[in-house]
Amino acid sequence: MNAVLAQPAPLPQALSRRSDSARRRHRIGHHALDPGVLRHFNELIARIDLQRAPLDRDQLASAARELIDDPAQGFAPACIHQRMRRAAAIDRMRADPEWGVDAAVASVGTLVIDYLRGPMALIPNALPVVGRLDDAILVDAAWAGIADEVRDYLDYCRLRHVEATLRGEARTHFGFTRERWLDARRAELEWIAHCDRVGRSSYLTANPSARFRVS
């Protein structure tokens, strides 16, 4: 399975627990979490996922502490790294002129990428280990609503590469549109079904889509 689509490592449990009113942490290392920036962050999450509860400073500080205190996480925790790979796929999909991303998905993707690239970070990116924790939380909130579109886009990229190889194309973009991807995917599925019917599936190449070109 594509690493972007695989089930990622879970985010820290503190993010889903109620805060400990007796503790109320509000710092990650030497960085004090700004209440105004946190309010903006929660408003952004609410625009992306109406069902997700807002976070408070104690939850975030406790979540960061879970990652920092876990020696198995290392410098780049898997739960953050995997979600940043998803963010990269979202950004690539949005910017691809030949894909024609769904409008609703594009809107959510823009909210996520604008935050990741913007100046108003809840947790500074330069913080060791947890500097991208806020970004990972935002990607996680958005993922359920855009995962299907990303899955289709990654398959589109696979078949576009096949088509480019067959044509001897060196360009990334050469007119292989979303509609042409649908045609190529149908042809691939029909070929696989045909081989299954006639009992010759063992003769399939490692890349059955290479048998088709979309003219």
Automatic annotation (TrEMBL):
Residues 1-16 have a biased composition (Low complexity). Residues 1-25 are annotated as: Disordered. This is DUF1232 domain-containing protein. It comes from Lysobacter zhanggongensis.
